Amino acid sequence: MPRPPNYPWMTRALFALAMVSLGTSSAFAQSSGFDVFSPDTVTLAGNGRLVGVDGERSWLDDGFGKLAYGGRDEGEPGDFRIRPRFGEAALIWQPRFGWALSGTVVGIAQRKGDHIEAGLSEAFVGFKPLSGGSIKLSARAGLMWPPVSLEHSGPEWAVTETITPSAINSWIGEEVKVVGLESSLLATRGRHKITATAALFDVNDTAGALLSFRGWGLHDVKALAFHTQPLPEPNEFIEYVQPRFTHPVKEMDGGFLKRPGFYAKLAWQPPFPVRIEALHYDNNSDPESVNDALEWGWRTKFNNFGLVADLGAKTQLRAQAIRGRTRMGITDNGAIWVDNRFRSAFALVTQRFGISSITGRIEAFGTRNKGGELVSDDDEHGWAVTLAGRHPLGEYATVLVEALHVSSRREAREREGMAPRQDQNQIQAQLRLRW
């Protein structure tokens, strides 16, 4: 086979041209803040884990299980099993279009039941102008989570101190994602800081389906655009009017922003290490809207309250509570098909030891159904306790270990021949990588 021609002068010229181009691009980025395709705009993150779990079949395998994993894949609750599992891989692109304008696009591959699901997690443009005064404005627009969680951070929306988020923020991650426009105003008065946030949004018209038919869950599976979440076995009426899946990112009532939802948040940070916040969310969906696949609109509203307090130089308390209502279907004889009241609360304490930390969390959750077709059999109440440890392994890796116990009662489990009260234990060891 003939060799390709060797042009050392051409190689040197191309290399020199590449270096000049990169240098020019870098200099331009530093002087203008514009940086779209450099390595600084791309981040890779991911995790793998070793999971030991017992108990009932996971909700990801069409069961009523509260966790992402189960002791058995089908049938009755199973014995404790230990298995290696892929967790998540994220590709994060954060271009900068100047000092004030930036973008965030996150693609995720995650384990979901017995398969790997890949898709778009977030895609929004952020606006944050430079300001040295007492009033600061910021905004963002696109596909994003509302600012509810006290446990997640970073562009990949990762849980910080534990592996598994609370029931509240598991639900936000799995079902409450919007396409909208959000603006925030930060005002500083003396040593007080007050932040007001407001947003108009749409494409979250089905939020409430998973929470009503399955109940609360504790897991780190995230809603992705254009993908579905599975639903467990419904009662005899619901199985004829609702498919065994729901699209969390879905427009249902006649066109984008025809019936926009909104959320508003107020956060106050006084001159001591405490932050208090409150958020009201209303998706304003039409509960009688339905598409050809028999997915329905869900009118979902909730109030969320949060507290972050430093109890010492190395101890932090985070507490969060949510209370809301979701409705779906046709009103008959004064009662709509589904009228679900939901609530949950947790307290989380993190104690730091140098670069390591130990976190404990206790929580309670419940739902109460007053609808005409989803009744008390689908009510639930439960609690969970979590203990986790976190230790960085250099600049790019972190190891976490976690033990979780969850107990819940739901009469609807009898449809699958199971006892209404179920307990699950889960132990995980996770390695997180980030470049």
Kindly identify the CATH topology of the domain at 132-434.
Porin
Helix content: under 10%
Strand order of the largest sheet: 2-3-5-6-7-10-11-14-15-16-17-18-19-20-21-22
Strand content: over 45%
Structural class: mainly beta
Unreliable segments (pLDDT under 50, ≥5 consecutive)? 1-28
Task: State the helix count.
Answer: 3
Order of SSEs: HEEEEEEEEEHEEHEEEEEEEEEEE
What is the CATH-assigned architecture of the domain at 132-434? Beta Barrel
CATH class of the domain at 132-434 equals Mainly Beta
- The total strand number stands at 22
Distance between the termini: 41 Å
Q: Largest sheet, if any?
A: 16 strands, antiparallel, barrel
Overall pLDDT score:
91
Gyration radius (Cα, Å) is 24 Å
> What is the overall shape?
globular
Relevant terms:
435 residues, mainly beta, Porin, two-stranded antiparallel sheet, 9% helix, disordered N terminus
Task: Write a structural description.
- By secondary structure, the protein is mostly beta strands.
- 9% of the residues lie in helices and 51% in strands.
- It contains three helices and 22 strands.
- The chain has a 16-stranded antiparallel beta barrel. A two-stranded antiparallel sheet has the order 1-4.
- The longest helix has 25 residues, at 8-32.
